[in-house]
Batch of 3 targets.
Target 1
Amino acid sequence: MKSLQYKFLCIPLVFLFVQINAQNYPCNYWPAPCPNATSISQADDWSARKGNGAIEQGLAFQRKMRNEISDVLQKTAKQNGWQVYQLTDEYFDGPPFQFINFANWEATPYEKRPPNEDHLAFIIVVNRDSLMLWRQWREEWMHRMEKSVNEQDMVALQKEDLKNTTAFTEGTIVLVHFGINPYHVTTGMEDGGQRSLIPQSALQVPGAFYAGMLINKEPPDRHAYEFTYKGYFFNSPASVATILFGNYQPKDSYNNWRPMFEKPFTSSAATLNGVKSIKCDVLQNLCAHIEGRPDKVKDVINKINWDDINSMMGK
């Protein structure tokens, strides 16, 4: 979970380095975040996922959604001279509530299944030249760090790392997350009481149930652009836009949304025993979070064809 209660911590003067050279980058996009190849490949392992409770129709639906959203983002990137790649696919094939045991979930046929949520994340490289400069600086910085022998040099390099990593990340990339039929939607950042921070301004997004922009008031620390445990949010980005499609219940006391389709799911029997009028392989709700520097986030929002996204609803 995100929190804006970060304090500056002394950075240990012990480092583990990996030699990086032009022929041996962790991925083609380094030092931007590399794709989570494991999660992406596991998402396509239908045999294993069926053993975890997934069904054919649900898996086919998730693949369709991934392909359609990828197509929209690739089209956007091509039109604007950007580059886009998938960062991760975070899915859960088991029962959506703790009050449903696995045996009952596994035995539930397609007609009675509620939706399973899936979370897709992408990185949009909005400035390729900046990515190359970032890479050059990072390689040079690592060489200087390896040769540093006194505490004064190390402290100076750590300060440079925080400053430049923040500047290059915010000037080079934007993180885009899509939640497919999500059961719990936050605004991407929380206070110390784990309540979602309320966006300060509204956004105009065609067809959206809600769209708002949250500006982070806290200065970045060295963990700001690392990922939370969820794998598709930054810890403390400069801004987050939250965009919702579909129907949602009123926000709860923690400023979070839950989908309207979830409202009758109050017990195992209420969730699994009835034939669903809208099947689990239909897009009922969609959330999007776009994270990064505010001007870059707004530019990405303005360039995405949201009519294409909205047209996926109910299908």
Target 2
Amino acid sequence: MAVVCKPCNTSFESLLCPDLLTCPDSGSDSQLILTSTLASVSWTLSQPLSQDFPLDLISIRMANYTEVNEFILLGLTNLWGLQGFLFVLFLILYMISLLGNGTIVAVVVNEPQLQTPMYFFLGNLSCLDIFYSTVTVPKMLAGFLSGNQAISFAGCLAQLHFFHFLGSSEVMLLAVMAYDCYVAICNPLRYTVVMNQWFCLLLVVITWATGFLHALIHLVMTSQLHFCGPNNVHHFFCDIKPLLRLACSSTSLNLILLNTMTGSLVLALCLLMLLSYLYIISFLLMKVKFQENRKKAFSTCASHVMVVTLYYGTAAITYLCPSLDSMAEEMIVTL
């Protein structure tokens, strides 16, 4: 492993990486800067050991390669003056989300008149939203109070998995709701036949299962990486990109899978929703003669279009846009 003497710029080769070596020009002990990278450490660890290889040198090799067993979430800010304000703000938003989505689920379940495909999907979307926010917000709120944002390696992977599992399922469910809207407006007479109870249940099961498998692939790939420090995650929760920046091993395959899988999923679902809304618009403009009926149909789809635009836009910017090099920009988009 190469080291360089600062005063005389002399290069030394030392396997044991000493902090001090004798400089041949100055004749005195000089502080040396290690110029080796982790790749050289990994190369050293991978070399076959001979019978004459000293056991204490083996210990030094292994000591230089230690796995991280916990991460420190740096959160939204390190200014203590803002911690209390952010705690109150996100607690209020979290409670509003829980109360609103919980009310929707309770009303859909208990009201017989709302036992329709549209409200069935809406109830599932509210459930996903409750779980989705619960994955990240409670840990963030606890960090605001205690200042301790430490999370274990297993806990970090679990948070990553459930965040992407619920997020992917929510994205797919929005596409299913767009298809439901298309059938309701363009084929009203066949709506109850096409969107029957078993077909709606099948769509929801496929949505949750696909989201789970999508997240499971990222979980397995991330768990195979080596993290040897530092362990400071520049985010308020464990996400794929911040963890990849901390990995000591190669992350090229992880990035390829992230871009390919996320890009394909978002593109396919966007195409499905785009076709659905193009059919809806053309149907309303060509076959619906009454202005009142058009406005009613457009108002039904307007809120869904807004949610889809915000959700798919932020997902595409966060995971597909290569220009987001700043973690502050990434956290703002995620929020």
Target 3
Amino acid sequence: MDLSPRLSDDAPAETEPADVTADGPTATRRRHLATTATAGLFAAVAGCGAIGSGGPADTEPSERTDETDDESNPVGDLPLFDAHAHVIPTAARGQDSLSADELVDWMDANGVDRAAVMAFDSPEGYPVQAPSWWVLEQVAAYPDRLVPFCTIDPRTMTYGEEAVDVFERYVDSGAQGFGELKVGMPIDDGRLEPLYELCAEHGLPIVFHTDRQFLTDEVGLPRLEEVLASYPEVDFVAHATGWWAHVAADVEPSDLGGRPEGPIESRGRVWELLSTYDNVYGDLSTRAGWNALTRDAEHGRALLETHHEQLVFGSDYLYPGQEVPLLEAFDRFDLERDAWANVRHRNLEGLLR
């Protein structure tokens, strides 16, 4: 049976406690950040903000300066690696399609050096599917700028080895992460377990979308915590309203699909899970992430200061002309340069296979 997903314009539109050992969860690739801080993926693209959008760079990159807290080195000079971007084959939701060329044009205009490009293989994930095989083809023209991710719809795992073969073909073709995982089932659904195990086996981080419709959970995120504890060798990058609503403690079920406003009276489960598990990260993309930082600026700055080793910059760029308010964060929040380096690129570099 051919498991390669087909493009579809019929999919519905998106709507916006486990045991831990005494030593804490098993450590993941985050421990390697100390040795990959200024090397690795950005060795070939330092200074690529000046690269044109007509194709991959063919010039030698300039060396970046030391990423320590130095007023002579503004934060904007640090590499910027977008953890969550897209290419979209056809128009959807009244917005134009987005090609790899257009994505790179936007990156050049906004100082983004590299971007992880998500796939949409599940039909409910987006009105138009962007299958993994297609994403891999589209980003191939920009190997120094665009990093492909892949997905497999968990319902196809019933095909056993054939589905596993499809997954492994994606990895062999260059997929460096798994995402965007966005399916209409609970985050601890048994059908997801084979995917979590495959990502553990191949060392792929998972970017997942959780809200009231996709990868659902209850207030307090007990299902997510069970997954984090059950798969300590997998890095999970949490995205969307179901996660970011929990930046505060007072969460109502309706908040899992929205963006709660107002000051934060007490810190929520986001803080606790980031402190307890080193295999969970926060994807700051979309207005949900921006809202988590700005609804209470004092707590937003504290979140960045406290958990900068587990937060990643992301745009969730889906269509030409989309606004990305998170780009304002680097001027809005006064954070040490070294901490910004983690958020801007080090953390994501450390996660990729």
